[in-house]
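Narrative of accomplishments. A recurring question from our advisory board has been how the design workflow behaves on a single, concrete structure rather than in aggregate. To address it, we present the structure tokens for one chain from the evaluation set, followed by the sequence designed for it. No filtering or post-editing was applied between the two.
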């Protein structure tokens, strides 16, 4: 089946109540999948998306939400590990507690949700996991030490999981977005001394000259999750406006 039609499939998106996760959940549903969202606060979600409250840093809540979602959906074919938090600074700027917190959500959150979903994925004929990496996995950006370490680990984990589960028919891939226009980036811009100047600087940093949209990232994730990508596993797809691959000279 070389199609991005997801009719008859089921999908679970972590952190799907906002930004990229919400765009992914919406597009998965638009393509015909039955979709559940696992989030700290899923109250704002609208039909046909079904929300389940869980914190990916808490194993018990993740297991309960994954089992409840699978029961309602009738299984899990697609898992999108999108929940994540940011951290600004060099290695001198964040105390150990903050390192533990960000790694607990960004890295161990992927482990917990995938571990809980594996029994369902094993029963699927189209099992696929897509993890949210970042441009920072392949490009050194200043003031992102902790966040980069967490997302670099997600990229390595993606490759390891792809190797471990390929013979079970479970594909595992990663998407590396550049700077995406989401509520998260909106909060960063609001905190800047000059939000408009900061937005212009972030846009100029990407060779296409603008921020990426959440819908553009969602389209890449849905492709990787779909039967059209049946032979694609253990790869990272950059959706970054050329940021990692192109080295343009100004002028
Ligand atoms: P966002 O803040 O708009 O949305 C994140 C969602 O995750 C929210 O709904 C939030 O409630 C949920 N969440 C956070 N912590 C959680 C937890 N512990 N348990 C369950 N849910 C939790 O963020 P976004 O910009 O859409 O980013 C989504 C993902 O994309 C993240 O993994 C982020 O690292 C990655 N990413 C974002 C960008 C960007 O520029 N926005 C770039 C590269 C990668």
């Amino acid at each position: 089946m070389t199609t991005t039609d997801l009719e008859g499939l089921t999908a679970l998106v972590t952190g799907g109540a906002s930004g990229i996760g919400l765009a992914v959940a919406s597009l998965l549903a638009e393509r015909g999948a039955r979709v559940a969202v696992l989030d700290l606060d899923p109250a704002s979600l609208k039909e046909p998306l079904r929300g389940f409250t869980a914190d990916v840093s808490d194993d018990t809540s993740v297991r309960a939400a994954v089992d409840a979602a699978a029961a309602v959906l009738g299984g899990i074919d697609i898992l999108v590990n999108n929940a994540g938090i940011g951290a600004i600074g060099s290695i001198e700027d964040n105390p150990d507690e903050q390192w533990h917190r960000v790694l607990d959500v960004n890295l161990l959150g992927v482990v917990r949700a995938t571990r809980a979903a594996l029994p369902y994925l094993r029963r699927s004929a189209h099992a696929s996991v897509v993890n949210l990496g970042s441009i920072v996995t392949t490009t050194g950006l200043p003031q992102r030490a902790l966040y980069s370490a967490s997302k670099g680990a997600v990229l390595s984990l993606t490759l390891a999981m792809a190797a471990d589960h390929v013979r079970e028919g479970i594909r595992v891939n990663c998407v590396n977005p550049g700077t995406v226009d989401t509520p998260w980036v909106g909060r960063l811009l609001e905190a800047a001394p000059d939000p408009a100047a900061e937005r212009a600087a972030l846009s100029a940093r990407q060779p296409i000259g603008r921020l990426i949209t959440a819908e553009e990232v969602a389209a890449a994730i849905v492709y990787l999750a779909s039967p059209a990508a049946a032979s694609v596993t253990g790869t990272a797809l950059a959706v970054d406006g050329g940021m990692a691959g192109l080295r343009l000279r100004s002028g």
